[in-house]
Amino acid sequence: MALLPEPGRLQTTLSHVHVSHLSVSSGMEHCFYSPGAAFIISGRKHAHLGRKTVTYGAGYCMVAAVDMPSAYEILDVSPEHPFLSVMVSLDAALIADCLQLFSPQYFKDAKDADSEGAVIIEASDTLLMLVKRLLEQHGKPQAEIMEPLLLREFFIELLQGPAGASLRGIFRRDSRAHKIAETVHYLRDHYREPLNIKALADMVYMAPSTFFKHFKAVTTLSPLQYHKRLRLYEAKRLLLTERCTVAEACYSVGYESQQQFTREYKRMFGRPPRRDTHDGSAFSVEDQAKKDENR
């Protein structure tokens, strides 16, 4: 990709678009996908989205409408055959505006549907053309003017395509899936606090059993599983990039028992947390920083 010829990650001059170039695989990585549409330009990825597993490659796109936990591995990558991807972040306000352009009849299925938080779709020629046009604005004086116009076209195309049902459900403000998305956002901001499912259910006027069912339909995880992954992924980031001790990471993300933290961390990542500290890990902080640059 001419825009990013060397391995790394580029935040373009467009606020919603960034590009990634990987030339080596770093094995299985864990992250939370923010709402966005990620297009693979070349290469392949094996991903665990919540509890779903999928392998996809060039010409396909992952559309995440809510923050989704993921573990992924880049496949068959080399300097000669790099992994290239483009991420276009979703803009909730702009998508809500786009929804107003459609007849209410078009979205009659969205109010009570259990929308998936993330779907993999084959990118249409129109979507790929719009991504290309967005990238062409990088560094140009008119980018600030052109970006919202092109994004509006981009979101309208998404809303009408294979990912449309999920997006319509989650971004329609009176829908059940939108209410679940609100609790997902709340958990992202309050993961250090103890999980209270009844309080979350009350927040969106659902019975706890109903809330549990629909939360799992959107994220593929139970609220407890989602909350745990939020804590453990952040703890791993603290260990690898902030030089935290195991105790510091444990209490920083909300655990009260270091023994429980160690047990759940090992179950999630296959290694005890001390192995991911600056002194105890096979991966140094500098190694992790390089991996972060290449995402």
What keywords describe this structure?
4-stranded antiparallel β-sheet; 11 helices; single chain; alpha+beta; 10 strands; 6-stranded antiparallel β-sheet; disordered C terminus; 43% helix; 295 residues
User: Low-confidence spans: pLDDT under 50, at least 5 residues?
Assistant: 281-295
Query: Which sequence of strands runs across the widest sheet?
Result: 1-2-9-4-7-10
The arrangement of helices and strands along the chain is: EEEEEEEEEHEHHHHHHHHHH
**What structural category do the secondary elements indicate?**
alpha+beta
* Portion of residues within helices: 40-55%
The beta-strand count equals 10
- Label the overall shape: globular
Distance between the terminal alpha carbons, to the nearest Å?
A: 15 Å
Main sheet?
Answer: 6 strands, antiparallel
> How large, in whole angstroms, is the Cα Rg?
20 Å
| Oligomeric state of shown chains | single chain
Strand % is 15-25%
Number of helices: 11
Task: Name the average pLDDT.
Answer: 88
